[in-house]
Design brief:
The complex is a heterodimer of chains A (214) and B (85). Chain A contains nine helices and six strands, in the order E-E-H-H-H-H-E-H-E-H-E-E-H-H-H. With 214 residues, chain A is of the alpha+beta class. In chain A, strand 3, helix 5 and strand 4 form a beta-alpha-beta unit. In chain A, helix 5 packs across helix 9. The longest helix of chain A is centred in the C-terminal third of the chain and has 19 residues. The two termini of chain A are 34 Å apart. Chain B has a four-stranded mixed sheet with strand order 2-1-3-4. Chain B has three helices and four strands; from the N terminus they run E-H-E-E-E-H-H. At the A-B interface, helix 8 of A face strand 2 of B.
Chain lengths: 214, 85
């Protein structure tokens, strides 16, 4: 039987699915160190991203004043969003001691993924916030909405900058290989340039979730 | 003899769709072997998973959502090759 959740679910007034999690599942899941040990790629990038997180004194004071929060992290080491955003959580935890987390691999925990689908997509990372009673009470999926919006706006600008790039809605294989490579490099650069803003937005999202739970 | 037929699979590398792309590639290789002129894998981003058989876009994650049924792709290839079962 796959590890994950019991099948009983309740829904709060806010529409957040409260999902009981077996304490034994939590206890047996990977710690951060164990997760890092089993990573086969992107560990260096993960740890570099932890160092890049900029936390203000106000951020630190905010996280330090609250109770310790359990977070089940559903992730995979190949996922760009997971490598970008999970380190924000682990860095805050290292600075404040206010998060206790366990790591689950998406492709080995289908039940947990099924309860945290992003529409029809198995988007990760999922940060499932777990109460002292081992119920999932809140969650974060994939990336901050503000980052998705900013990326979407920048993509439009890039596509609009050169008629050879065609339209965003057209399959990319329509483009000649050299144009595709040029466009791909511009999109990659854009994502890299947005990273500082994205990390700040992630801190903000985590503050919002912790505020909701307080 | 039918004209050369190429299959292109564009997948979101950022999303980790390599396995789905490889599974489909393997099935096409085993089913059609040298009858296909080539199978091109295009790593991309933004949640893409598109499959083109010849000039026909058989599946687009943006258009249809999700991953394609393998049989849908195999069937399009059979048609493109003029193979009737």
């Amino acid at each position: 039987m796959p590890i994950g959740y019991r099948v009983v679910a309740k829904t709060t007034r806010e529409g957040i699915r409260r999902m009981p999690m077996e304490k034994a599942v939590w206890d047996q899941a990977m710690t951060l160190d164990q997760y890092k040990e089993q990573m086969t790629r992107n560990r260096e990038q993960f740890e570099a991203n932890e160092q890049k997180v900029e936390l203000t004194e106000d951020d630190l004071a905010f996280f330090r004043k609250g109770p310790k929060q359990k977070v089940a992290v559903l992730t995979e080491d190949w996922c760009g969003d997971a490598i970008a955003y999970v380190p924000v959580l682990t860095r805050i935890a290292a600075e404040t001691g206010k998060f206790d987390f366990r790591f689950f691999l998406r492709d080995q925990t289908p039940e947990m993924m099924a309860h945290n689908m992003n529409g029809e997509f198995k988007s990760i990372p999922v940060l499932a916030f777990i109460s002292d009673e081992y119920e999932q009470v809140d969650r974060f999926i994939e990336r901050p909405k503000t980052v998705t919006e900013a990326r979407g706006k920048k993509r439009k600008e890039i596509y609009g900058s050169d008629s050879r790039y065609g339209s965003e809605s057209e399959p990319i294989d329509n483009l000649p290989e050299d144009v595709r490579a040029e466009l791909g490099a511009k999109l990659q650069k854009m994502r890299e340039e947005l990273q500082p803003m994205a990390r700040k937005e992630m801190v903000r999202e985590l503050r919002e979730i912790v505020s909701r739970l307080s | 003899m039918s004209a050369p037929l190429k299959v292109k699979i564009t997948y979101c590398a950022e999303c980790g769709y390599e396995q789905e792309a490889l599974d489909l590639t393997k099935e096409l290789m085993l089913a059609f072997g040298q009858k296909l002129s080539s199978i091109e894998l295009i790593p991309w981003d933004d949640g893409a998973f598109d499959v083109r058989v010849g000039d026909l876009l058989v599946h687009s994650m943006m258009r249809e959502g999700g991953f394609p049924e393998h049989e849908t792709v195999l069937s399009a290839v059979r048609e493109g090759l003029g193979v009737h079962t």
